[in-house]
Structure of DoxX family protein:
Amino acid sequence: MTGVYWFVALQFALGAITKYWPGETFFGPPYAVQFVEWGYPSWMRFVVGSLEGLAAVLLVIPSRRTRFLGATTLAFVLTGAVTTHIISPDGLSESWAAPTHLVIAGALALANWPADWRDLLRAPAGRAPSPTR
């Protein structure tokens, strides 16, 4: 299962890097151009790229809490991506990745679902503090 987290994290780390890339990528035209064509300001690619990069880091930290937060961050970003591809005139060949990744992010979020929501807010359990003298 760790390999799955690393594989998904690698994909989104690569996606984050391409959002910052100024020129054409192997995915097609520059994201600065694509975001404008989709109706967003070009700087929005930095926000999306930062969220993808943060989520990728959270996915590789071996903690249910961080993996849940990473997967839900991706689900949030990918919901926007799926909506964008539904509204934009992109063809099916350009629009299949976002829904596929949304399903994967949802599955990872469900796999790491906390038993209690308050667990997300609590400090991780560790050693008890040593008494002061």
Remarks:
- The radius of gyration is 17 Å.
- The longest helix spans residues 64-87.
